[in-house]
Amino acid sequence: MSSHVKSTVNGDAVEFVCTNDESLLDVLRNRLGLTGAKEGCGTGDCGACSVILDGRLVCSCLVLGAEMNGKTVETIEGMADGAKLHPLQQNFIDGAALQCGICTPGFLMAAQALLRKNPDPSEEEIRFGLAGNLCRCTGYDKIVRAVQSAAKEMRG
Amino acid sequence: MGETMRFETPSTAKEAVTLLAKEKGAAYILAGGTDLLVKMKAGIIEPDLVVDIKLIKGMTEIKKSATGFMIGAGVPCAALSENAGLVKAYPGVVEAANLIGSKQVQGRCTMSGNLCNASPAADSVPALIAAGAKVLISGPKGNRKLNVEDVPAGVGRTNLKKGEFITAISLPPKAAKSGDAYLRFTPRTEMDIAVVSVAINLTLDGKGIITKARVALGAVAATVLLVKEAAKAIIGTKLDDAAKAKLAAVCSAACKPIDDKRGTIEFRTDVAGVLARRAAETAYARAGGK
């Protein structure tokens, strides 16, 4: 059985039909063509599928598409302002805070959620804020430093 | 599974109860979904019906009144730390709930779900039991209340009957000169499951003597344990060294743990005592004791 759902994704009104057991991640990737969020584990352990749902950071693999009626979703595709990258994105590139890139959209969304709540986090707060995101190639130091430099830039 | 699973979003508890009660197949409640979806994907469960309760009025609200705090069954754990009144009254409950999973998981997971998942290692459950929390249940025969410690029936099993579901968790008003704390042992600081956990809530008199206490142990038996003897060990004391030693001994003695890859029986038994002593010190200080 399926559900007919209306929600807002990155500021755009969207309408989709999904099967009732389909995850938000599968809806984003397979029905809406937003392939930035990745499936790493599918069980909420790796954070590669992180999106912001009604203002809260969540794993989109653990949300049903059928739940999305009237909800607002932010994904990595909505982070840049047109051609201008978000300071977090630019600092990840400048600081080489990625290698294969699979985990990067999730890290960026988690960092975005963290900085909205806490614009001036300590290194420890950044590490706790990103503890739900796993990276298997870069290691975490460059990622933490990129978030620190982005946070500084965003505070102005 | 996907072809036949029905998905409902009732707007009242009564509607939800009717849906659950009349379902002949496997029916599940969806609150945060952080356990439900994992089990669905792993094929551990194959729901015929999933009932999302979050559109029911009050389900995602935290209400404070003269009778304490009412935390709707759909309130994500992340919202608990944003409620200044709750953090002030029950810091131990909030810190326990904010140890579950990652920030992403906390954005969705609920204390009611943590309780109904009925894992003995559930972080929020010992803290709720120490706080003397109750659950409000809606069911085909009306509403009823249950102490949190009476909800789990065993690993993965609860005492809820067919058609029943938890609508809210109720915490009593904070007593004057009371404090709580939750501690767990995990190999990692985040994203891990308790090997042993302890929650303590205690109340002092004007002289700093403990007049009331509730001590709960997690991950050392099939269900979270409320250890009344542990409370007796510290009531009437100012949490001096002798009282702490007795508390630790009683807590260790109450453990009936399993040996598994995360901890041995011996380790869990010993650490339960250590954590109890430390949690009691924090709770005592939070209650204003010196």
Note down, in words, how this protein is organized.
The complex is a heterodimer of chains A (156) and B (290). Chain A has 156 residues and is of the alpha+beta class. Chain A has 5 helices and 5 strands, in the order ββαβββαααα. In chain A, strands 2-1-5-3-4 form a 5-stranded mixed sheet, with helices on both faces. Chain A is globular. With 290 residues, chain B is of the alpha+beta class. Chain B is 32% helix and 25% strand. Chain B is built from 11 helices and 14 strands. In chain B, a hairpin with a 2-residue loop joins β6 (134-139) and β7. In chain B, α5 (91-97) runs antiparallel to α8, α9 (228-234) runs antiparallel to α10 (241-254) and α10 packs across α11 (265-286). The longest helix of chain B is centred in the C-terminal third of the chain and has 22 residues, at 265-286. Chain A binds chain B through residues 1, 3, 19-23, 42-45, 47, 50, 53, 56-59, 61-64, 66-67, 69, 110, 113-114, 128-129, 131-133, and chain B through 1-7, 9, 30, 33-34, 37-38, 40-42, 47, 50, 52, 54, 76, 78, 101-105, 107-108, 189-191.
Which terms would index this structure?
heterodimer, A: 156 residues, alpha+beta, 5-stranded mixed sheet, 5 helices, 5 strands, globular, B: 290 residues, 5-stranded antiparallel sheet, 4-stranded antiparallel sheet, 11 helices, 14 strands, 25% strand
In quaternary terms, these chains amount to heterodimer
The separation of the N and C termini of chain B measures: 58 Å
Number of strands of chain A: 5
Please tell me what the overall shape of chain A is: globular
Strand content of chain B: 15-25%
Order of helices and strands of chain A: EEHEEEHHHH
* Count of individual beta strands of chain B: 14
Structural category of chain B: alpha+beta
Please specify the SSE layout and strand pairing.
The complex is a heterodimer of chains A (156) and B (290).
Chain A: E1 2-9, E2 12-19, H1 24-31, E3 50-53, E4 56-59, E5 72-74, H2 87-94, H3 104-117, H4 123-129, H5 141-155
Parallel strand pairs in A: 1-5
Antiparallel strand pairs in A: 1-2, 3-4, 3-5
Chain B: E1 6-8, H1 13-22, E2 27-30, H2 36-42, E3 49-52, E4 62-65, E5 68-72, H3 77-80, H4 84-89, H5 91-97, H6 103-106, H7 111-116, H8 124-130, E6 134-139, E7 142-147, E8 152-154, E9 157-158, E10 165-171, E11 178-185, E12 196-204, E13 210-218, E14 225-226, H9 228-234, H10 241-254, H11 265-286
Parallel strand pairs in B: 1-3, 2-3
Antiparallel strand pairs in B: 4-5, 5-10, 6-7, 6-10, 8-9, 11-12, 12-13, 13-14
